[in-house]
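Bug #77: duplicate submission created two jobs. Keeping one. Sequence:
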Amino acid sequence: MAELELKPSLPIPKQPEYIRLALSAGKHVLSEKPIAESVKDAQELINWYHANIDSNKVTWSVAENFRYLASFDYAREQVQRAGRLLGFRAKRYSMVRGGKYFDHLKETEWRKNPTHQGGFLLDGGVHVTAGLRLLLGPENTITRLSAFSAQLQKHLPPVDTIDATMKTKSGATGTLSVSFGTSFTGYEFSIACEGGTVSLSVFGSTVTTVFEGKEEETKVADEKTGVPSEVRKWGEALAAGERNEKQIPEEALADLELVSGLNNSWWGRS
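Kept job's structure:
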């Protein structure tokens, strides 16, 4: 059985330093998303890992609980069943006021005065890009986007809202709208394919399909927020001496690249 050492979640800018220290000490690491505060820092960390650490003996994984929600897996299966992608819409709306993020007794300085690009939009928005990437699949990788951003709430600097248009390598286009400072509510992904449509309501763990004019709604049993499953799968992979492909740093980098592109207002790849 591999020796495990669990580390508490750290502020985004602090993570790379402690990841290097733990890996250098021979400890397996499961770090929190996002992988780093910028694409540059993330790529440098990945390069350092592959150049300095024997990944067959000491592993680094990055957590993303949306990859362990059964509702996303089921929705992805329905998208594959529906055929060629025609378009997509993703939206995530809420008003972040307090609670574990900004409660006056619990608030964290690094969230109040973020040094990382995008602030809370990076911290929370990376879930949206991870979820969208999962549903679209590698055959529909997003290659270009254009976005407008705004700060609607003073306590959510530097921006808390983004609206974007996107294009995939398959040629399909879609939209993404995320705000943590709005009175709008909802967390939904809608995918249009030649064979019908697939919609996922994240808060309700409900997948609605329309195939050949027939609408069907399926309530999927998610294991809480996906965190128990992702930690368990990490441990199982370690015990088996295998690599969990859902948790490799490169997957987390792809999530970060997309949300960073949104924060930069424009992004494209060949």
